[in-house]
Design a protein that fits this description.
Blueprint lengths: L3 E9 L2 H12 L4 H8 L10 E6 L5 H7 L10 E6 L2 E10 L1
Antiparallel strand pairs: 1-2, 1-4, 3-4
Length: 95
């Protein structure tokens, strides 16, 4: 079971915004570019890059999505709702 992960995300205020961006990703949109343009998280400056983090260090819903079996094999996850808003998550790798 993975104990570390590296991920990027796009944080949005509404589920509708997240679903709209998800459609753009499905149609070949660039995750980092969309994060820079739309994410409300400070990580937007880095294309949504959150770097490497330990299991349990993110809010529960985010953590559960990232560390779910096979999450690294998907183009992106989400929208995932947390107390911060709605996330689209790109899992880069897990160890």
């Amino acid at each position: 079971m993975a104990k570390m992960a590296c991920a990027s995300h796009i944080l949005l205020k509404t589920e509708a915004q997240a679903r709209s961006l998800a459609k753009q990703l499905d149609n070949g949109g660039d995750f980092a570019m969309l994060a820079k343009k739309h994410s409300t998280c400070p990580s937007a400056k880095k294309g949504g890059d959150l770097g490497e983090f330990k299991k349990g260090s993110m809010v529960a819903q985010f953590d559960k999505a990232v560390f779910a079996k096979g999450s690294e094999d998907k183009k992106y996850l989400g929208p995932v709702k947390t107390k911060f808003g709605f996330h689209l998550i790109q899992v880069l790798y897990k160890d």
